[in-house]
Amino acid sequence: MPTFTAPDGTRLAYRLIGDGGGDPVLCVPGGPTDSRYLGDLGGLSAHRRLAVLDLRGTGRSALPHDTSGYRCDRLVDDVEALRAHLGPARLDLLGHSAGANVATQYAARYPERLGRLALIGPGTRAVGIEVTGETRRALARLREGEPWFPAAFAALEAIGAGTGRDWEAIAPFFWGRWDAAARRHHAAARPRNAEAVALFAAEGAFDPPATRAALAACGTPALLLTGEFDLNSPPGATAELAGLFPDARLVVQSGAGHYPWLDDADRFVSAVAAFLR
């Protein structure tokens, strides 16, 4: 597994997937968790080579000496270091979930380094877009025909009310199909570094007004793709994020949750590969 050195000296790892020509698409996972859960993004690697980053303290990347290095804004420096390591003057960047906050801040800070930007099931904290509990409950009710719905919805309401913390019980809401493949993926995607998760959004990690202003001047073409059922990144919030870019396309993948490349790989790859071409 190849590695490179971050600006603060932390040794970081990444995977190169696919054998397509040209510069790879740099992929930033969410979590923060081991990037293996991204796989090859449903077969996207058949169209473009992928450089998939293990964020510091996850996967095969080292722990930082200074824990403030876990902050989202500091992770932007790691993405820029990997771009420089890979060599292209401009890169195509893909961020999923919390990793989209990193990618969004990268676009705000280094627009001249970007070719195209794909945000998948994007987190929106970097720009200050909040998702209300009622929005999540309304999306959840779309799944009430599922056999697991009663227990999962009760757990979701308890979490929203502050009386429960059974995050495992609400897991089915994040996949379009809660089947054996989704259960395996859920186990693989679970964050292992609690400190990295806790400090990702520490004080100073986000400056929404500054990021919004920078995005308004960013000419990078952007694709924002989310699932119809995505409780983490609802279509409404993703549409609001898309509206901050001068040149953005919004795709809501029907029947999908937070991991659309698993719910319908063909549809996901078709949309993303066409955009990246």
The rough form would be described as globular
Question: What percentage of amino acids are in beta strands?
Answer: 15-25%
The arrangement of helices and strands along the chain is: EEEEHEHEHHHHHEHEHH
Separation of the first and last Cα atoms: 27 Å
Average pLDDT rating: 96
Strand runs, count: 8
Task: Write down the Rg.
Answer: 18 Å
Quaternary organisation of the protein chains? single chain
**Largest β-sheet summary:** 8 strands, mixed
Number of helices: 10
Order of strands, widest sheet: 1-2-4-3-5-6-7-8
Which structural category do the helix and sheet elements fall into?
A: alpha/beta
Helical content class: 25-40%
Describe the protein's topology.
Elements lengths: L2 E3 L5 E7 L7 E4 L21 E4 L18 H15 L4 E6 L1 H12 L4 E7 L12 H9 L7 H13 L18 H10 L4 H7 L7 H9 L5 E6 L7 H8 L5 E6 L6 H4 L1 H12 L1
Parallel strand pairs: 3-4, 3-5, 5-6, 6-7, 7-8
Antiparallel strand pairs: 1-2, 2-4
Explain what the structure shows.
36% of the residues lie in helices and 16% in strands. The chain has helices at residues 72-86, 98-109, 133-141, 149-161, 180-189, 194-200, 208-216, 235-242, 260-263, 265-276; strands at 3-5, 11-17, 25-28, 50-53, 91-96, 114-120, 222-227, 248-253. The chain has an eight-stranded mixed beta sheet, sandwiched between helices. Helix 8 links the parallel strand 7 (222-227) and strand 8 (248-253). The longest helix is centred in the first third of the chain and has 15 residues, at 72-86. The two termini are 27 Å apart. The mean pLDDT is 96.
